[in-house]
Design goal:
Layout (H helix, E strand, L loop, with lengths): L4 E7 L3 H11 L4 E4 L3 H8 L2 E3 L2 E3 L2 E3 L6 E7 L6 H10 L4 E4 L6 H8 L4 E3 L1 E2 L2 E5 L2 E6 L2 E4 L4 H9 L3 E4 L3 H22 L12 H17 L6 H14 L6 H7 L10 H11 L4 H14 L6
Parallel strand pairs: 1-2, 1-6, 2-5, 6-7, 7-8, 12-13
Antiparallel strand pairs: 3-4, 9-12, 10-11
Helix pairs in contact: 3-4, 6-7, 6-8, 6-9, 6-11, 7-8, 7-10, 10-11
Bound molecules: NADP nicotinamide-adenine-dinucleotide phosphate.
C-alpha cells in the first residue's frame, strides 16, 4: 500500500466527485477519498452513477494514497479539510472545481504544492444513494493543469486549459450569485427565475454584482452579464440549483463561498450591493444559522 501511487485522485465522494471518478476510472486508476472510514466502507460495495454500477477505489482521508493530481470536489465549507488531505497525498498539483471562490483557502492549506481553481458546468445530483448525471458541460482548468485536462478529455469530458481562468471564475461567480440564492429562496427551478415575479430580482442581482466583478477582472460588459445569466437560466430551466437542493435536503449551503465572497469583494471596493446582502441574510435564515449583521 505504501508504494501505491494513483495518477489521479478525487477528494469528495459526492455527486460531482463520483460522476467524474466513474468516467475517469474507465480510462485508468482513480482514487476517491470519502469524508470518513464509514463512508469509504459503504462506497466499496458500489454506487449507481446513472445506469452504471461503479466500484470505486475509495479511501478514508487518513488512508489517502499518494497521487499525481488531486481534484477537490467537496462543498466549499469543507475545502480546508480536503486541502490538508490533498497535501498529504504529495501530488504535483491540486485542482478545485468547486463553486464559489475557494482558491485562496486551498492554496494556503497546500503550502508549496501548486493549487488552483478551475470551473465546471458538468452537472450531477444525489438521489438517495445514487448519483444522477444531470447534464454534460465544460471544464476549464488553469495553466499548469494540462495533464488533468488531457485525462478529462480522454474520459470523454469536454475540458481545456483556459489562460484567463480568473475571468472565467468571475463569470461563473456572476451566474452563481444571481441564480443560486433566488432558486433556494423561492424553491423554483432555474427557468422560473426568468419570469415574474422573480425576474426583477434576478436582474437586480446581476446589475449589482456586475460592477464589483468587473472591477475584479470580469471580462463581460453589463449587457453581456445579463445575457450570460439569462442563457444559463434558459439552458438549465428544468434544473434545481445546488443551493436549492441543499436547502431541500437540510444541508448547509455554499452561500458563504458564493454571495459571501461577493459581499467581501464589494466591501473592499466600498460598493453597496443591498440585494445581495438581503439574499445572504435570507439564505442564512433558511439554514437556521446566524444572519448577516
Ligand atoms: N453537483 C453539480 O452539478 C456541481 C456542478 C458544478 C460545480 N459543483 C461544485 O462541486 C462541489 C461539490 O459538489 P457536489 O454537488 O458534488 O457536492 P456533494 O454531493 O455534497 O459532495 C461533496 C462530498 O464531499 C464529501 N466530503 C466533505 N468533506 C470531506 C472531506 N474533508 N474529505 C473527503 N470528502 C469530504 C461529502 O461527504 P458527506 O456525503 O459525508 O457530506 C460529500 O460526499 C461544490 O463546490 C459544488 O458547488 C457541483
Amino acid at each position: 500500500m505504501d508504494t501505491l501511487r494513483f495518477p489521479i485522485a478525487i477528494i469528495g465522494a459526492g455527486a460531482l466527485g463520483l460522476h467524474f471518478a466513474a468516467r475517469l476510472a474507465a480510462q485508468g486508476p482513480v482514487a476517491v477519498v470519502a469524508r470518513n472510514q464509514e463512508r469509504a466502507v459503504a462506497l466499496r460495495a458500489g454506487v449507481d452513477i446513472g445506469a452504471q454500477r461503479y466500484l470505486p477505489n475509495v479511501f478514508a482521508p487518513e488512508d489517502a494514497p499518494a497521487a499525481d493530481w488531486v481534484l477537490v470536489l467537496v462543498k466549499a465549507a469543507d475545502t480546508a479539510d480536503a486541502a490538508r488531505t490533498a497535501r498529504a497525498m504529495a501530488p504535483r498539483g491540486v485542482l478545485s472545481l468547486q463553486n464559489g471562490l475557494t482558491g485562496d483557502v486551498l492554496a494556503a492549506a497546500c503550502g508549496a504544492i501548486p493549487a488552483d481553481q478551475g470551473i465546471t458546468t458538468e452537472g450531477a445530483f444525489r438521489d438517495g444513494a445514487r448519483v444522477v448525471p444531470s447534464g454534460a458541460g465544460e471544464t476549464l482548468v488553469p495553466p499548469g493543469f494540462e495533464a488533468v485536462a488531457a485525462a478529462l478529455v480522454a474520459a470523454g469530458f469536454r475540458a481545456r486549459v483556459e489562460p484567463d481562468i480568473a475571468a472565467a471564475r468571475l463569470a461563473k461567480l456572476l451566474v452563481n450569485v444571481a441564480i443560486n440564492p433566488l432558486a433556494a429562496l423561492f424553491r423554483v427551478p432555474n427557468g422560473a427565475l426568468l419570469e415574474a415575479p422573480h425576474r426583477v430580482l434576478l436582474d437586480a442581482l446581476v446589475d449589482e454584482a456586475w460592477p464589483v466583478l468587473r472591477a475584479a477582472g470580469l471580462q463581460l460588459d453589463a449587457d453581456a452579464a445579463r445575457t450570460r445569466v439569462h442563457a444559463v437560466a434558459t439552458a438549465t430551466a428544468g434544473n434545481r440549483a445546488s443551493m436549492l437542493q441543499d436547502v431541500l435536503a437540510g444541508r448547509r449551503t455554499e452561500i458563504d463561498a458564493i454571495t459571501g465572497t461577493l459581499l467581501a469583494m464589494a466591501a473592499a471596493q466600498g460598493a453597496d450591493v443591498p440585494t445581495h446582502r438581503a439574499a445572504f441574510t435570507l439564505v442564512k435564515r433558511l439554514e437556521g444559522g446566524p444572519a448577516a449583521s
